[in-house]
Amino acid sequence: MTGLDRLPETDPTSILRSRDGIYAVDVLTAAVAEFQIFDFLREQPSTIAEVCAHYGWDLRPADVLITLCKAYGYLSENAEGGITTTPQAVEHLCEGSPWNLSEYYSSLRDRPVVADYARVLKTGKPAHWSGLDEADDDWHGAMLNEDFAKTFTAAMDCRGVFLGKKLADAVAGILSTSCRVLDIGGGSGVYACALAANQPDLEGIVLEQEPVDAIARGKIGERGLSDRVRVEVGNMFADPWPESCDLHLFSNVMHDWDVPDILTLLKRSRETLAEGGHVLIHETFLNREKTGPVPVAEYSCILAHSTQGRCYSVGEMESYLEEADFAFLSFQETGGDRGVITAGPK
Fold first, then answer.
1. E-strand spans in 215-289?
2. Deepest of 51, 60, 193, 316, by most Cβ within 10 A of its Cβ?
């Protein structure tokens, strides 16, 4: 099963974190050098809505920036939602302090992603993938290009071998009572394959659009699972979903989309999920207070830059499930800073 039915002897989490958090320094640099946010919030503690109104920011990327700064301990929030600068930030990130390090970050102001993030904050629209000036508007558009889709899908597939096994182990009880899993926006199909590799009676369907569908068929074949996992072509927002599936899986999908799109996906899931079924949301989740974990807050920075999404908290996802007529059942950590929420129809 090429690793899907066993774990490595060592933990790759630190390696994943190094890549996932690569844009966090650029977000912090924008906060310090472009917007002097710590000076503003020292003088005028504000809600996130007031911060957005002051700077003309879009809520989604602003949420990511403020969450990062709370996770680092540079901002704090009171019970009424007022955000203010912490003593550490007052000493080291604000004007007037002899220990002010703002200029240290200002020296990074010309990094391309810093400028990108300043634009994303103002517009809410994602920038080019990896800061490159390409014809495609953003990651979502680039995924329709075959060459980019192959490269990106391969990147997500390799991490999924470890993450998929950790997910399968965490939800073993549900897998044992499920017959068919629908892996929505499943990329290479690595997560459907991981679930199938660890539960011999489970069948899988990967719902993906062109050209990723062909990539998925190839990877499923390489893993020797073509007899149990198949691919159906479709846009998960617009096209019909396969029915008769009693397990719906969203693995690393929700973080690519904004709240209205997440609600659309969950409502489509509720409409097509077989009676008595479950939905699994496998993601990098913030805690309910949105003060960490630090690696998740850092990962959210690259998502806000290049996609239409961000990392969401367990509490936020629970509220979205509630709105889509699902009952939140549990949350548990899996591996690599990921976790899984299990829900079922009310």
1. 229-233, 247-251, 278-283
2. 193
| Residue 248 reports pLDDT greater than 80 | yes
Picking from 198, 305, 317, the residue whose alpha carbon sits closest to that of residue 253 is: 317
Walk me through the domains of the chain, giving residue ranges and CATH numbers: 14-142 (1.10.10.10), 146-345 (3.40.50.150)
Digit-coded pLDDT (tens) for 141-177: 677 777 777 888 888 899 999 999 999 999 999 999 9
In contact, 38 and 93? CB cutoff 8 Å: yes
How far apart CA 282 and CA 305 sit, in angstroms, is: 21
Q: What is d(CA 93, CA 203) in angstroms, rounded to the nearest whole number?
A: 54
Q: What is the distance in angstroms between the CA of the first residue and the CA of the last residue of the chain? A: 36
pLDDT digits (tens, 9 = 90+) for 119-140: 999 999 998 765 444 444 566 7
Return the H-helix or E-strand segment holding 230: strand 229-233
What is the C-alpha to C-alpha distance for residues 282 and 163, in angstroms, rounded to an integer? Answer: 10
Residue of 91, 87, 107 whose CA lies nearest to 99: 91
Nearest C-alpha neighbor of 333 from the set 261, 263, 285, 278: 285
Could you check whether the bond before residue 211 is cis, i.e. omega within 30 degrees of 0? yes
Cα–Cα distances in Å, from 258 out to 72, 123, 266? 24, 14, 13
E strands, 252-289, in order: 278-283
Q: For residue 214, what are the contacts with CB-CB under 8 A and spacing of at least 6? A: none
Q: What pLDDT score does 229 carry? A: 97
Sign of CA dihedral 173, 178, 180, 186: negative
If 0-12 CB within 10 Å is exposed, 13-18 middle and 19+ buried, where does residue 174 land? buried
pLDDT, residue 135, reads 43
Q: Which residue has the tokens 């994602």?
A: 126
**Structural contact between residues 197 and 161, judged by C-beta atoms closer than 8 angstroms:** no
